Amino acid sequence: MSVAALMMGLLAFIVVLRVFNAAQVAGEVIATTQDAIGVMANADVTDAEKEMQVRRASLKLIGRFFWIASIGVMAFAASVVLVWGGAALGLYRFERAMAIAIGWPFIVGSSVVAIAVWVGLDRLKRTTAPSTNDGGDVPYNTLDIALHDFAFAAPGRQRSLGKFETALFRRRINMDHAKRPVFVTSLPRAGTTIMLEMLAGLPQFASATYRHMPFTLSPLLWGGFSGAFRKSGGTVERAHGDGIKVGFDSPEAFEEMLWIAFWPEHFDDTKITPWDADERHPEFETFFRTHMAKIVATKPGATRYLSKNNANIARLGLIERLFPDATIIVPIRNPRAQVCSLMRQHQRFCDLHAREPFARRYMEGAGHLEFGEALRPIAFDDASPNPATAQDTTFWLTYWIAAYEHVLATAGPAVVVVDHDALCADPSGFLPEIAQAMGLDCDAELAARGAILRPAGPPPNLNDVPLALLQRADALYAELRRLSAGAAFPKQGNAK
Fold first, then answer.
1. 347 Cβ contact list (under 8 Å, min separation 6)
2. 416: enclosing H helix or E strand
3. Domain coverage including residue 405
4. Where are the beta strands (DSSP E) in 6-126?
């Protein structure tokens, strides 16, 4: 009877914690603390603003700590009152119940039961509650959000953790695996994600995955740690609403966090400044090569680094100089279709960011600055595209022209232009050429992965843009398609 009473007391303890949302309050404490740390580490915030925001955070923390302590007291009191009440009714001796409660068999057993009950209630809640996921790539709870905010708050901390990881795992890091990397880049909505999916499925390629978030600059340390408590899980449609499903082990574009950490001067509040081919940053170059080798080490049997990073289109010359044995794949797409897709995604993410502030913080922290309130266009032609005009078709068509004129001006022999529409129409005809350009001897295996491609539909009309601008885009697209057939910056010269 004493054991049964103690278990009832344990259930009462759990019920009080859940009724008063103790886990949510704890998450708010962590989130407030990390927000304050992020403010203190932000060089763009004045000392006066830092003092004001930290004071607000301190007052909020005092209130949250008082509330969570009160919840703990209420939960403990509910448990004690229930056990004491049974003893008062003469069902058992209170002293006997307390002796059992402090014994290690009950402590261990009750801990296991409490965890099982808590997890079971969480799963029941997720099953019965209506979905509140607005299309995020991977669903996050309060503690996950606090962890991401902590990781995003100070890029310097990520760099330090990456250096520590290098020293810790030096025996697993094979620098030969930083050779012959493959970079997939273009403006968004050109087919870069599909290309990444096809290549990442090949055994020799390794890419960053969602499992490496949010500490992406230490993939061995954090990837191994997160793998210990995260299940394989299923997949969900990513936030783009384009039918592509992702899970913890899906490849994704997280390389930009590294560029942000080492080149902050190229990123301001409204734009990204392109890189010159001769820019130097020795610490970055060493870190990046080591990072590539560490990413490869996360996938057994892999020997080559693979990344998708749309912003790499702003640094083609630099990448070719740093990695002369690299292959840079640049998918291209009909400007009419791509501009319409860019506009849809921008509006989609504007709506999402208005509803979910963390979605914006996530995109900014991960370096996804392509859409929504996080939009920071690349200043390809030394101009400053105005994100406030991004609801206009002319903005995106002008941006498309500037981006691919920049490709023509900066691409070298490592660049492989891929006509995405032609590839989708005839995967078996084009994939062997792409494999050859990357120095692969698995044409058949890559061709088989082309089954995920679907032919593109007819391009939509762009009736609300100046005719001269549209003609300029069409001429540029024709030139890019000619290059994709091998007329310039020869693909075969890049085969390894």
1. 391
2. strand 415-419
3. 150-494
4. none
Beta-bridged to residue 182, according to DSSP, are 306, 327
- Give the burial class of 357: count Cβ atoms within 10 A of its Cβ; 0-12 exposed, 13-18 middle, 19 or more buried: exposed
Phi, psi for 307 (deg, rounded to 5): -140, 150
For the ranges 13-22, 274-283, 443-452, the maximum mean pLDDT occurs at: 274-283
Pairing of strands 415-419, 327-332: parallel
Q: Can you tell me the distance from the alpha carbon of 254 to that of 252, in angstroms, rounded to the nearest whole number?
A: 6
**Cβ(208)–Cβ(307) below 8 Å:** yes
Q: Give the three-class secondary structure for 58.
A: helix
Q: Do 38 and 186 reside in the same domain of the chain?
A: no
Residue 140 placed within a domain: no
At position 389, the amino acid (one-letter code) is T
Q: Say if strands 245-246 and 236-237 run parallel, antiparallel, or are unpaired.
A: antiparallel
Give pLDDT tens digits for 308-339: 999 999 999 999 999 999 999 999 999 999 99
Task: Choose between 238 and 200: higher pLDDT.
Answer: 200
Residue that has been written with the tokens 């068509």 in this structure: 397
Residue 220, domain member (yes or no): yes
Distance CA 410, CA 461 (A): 30
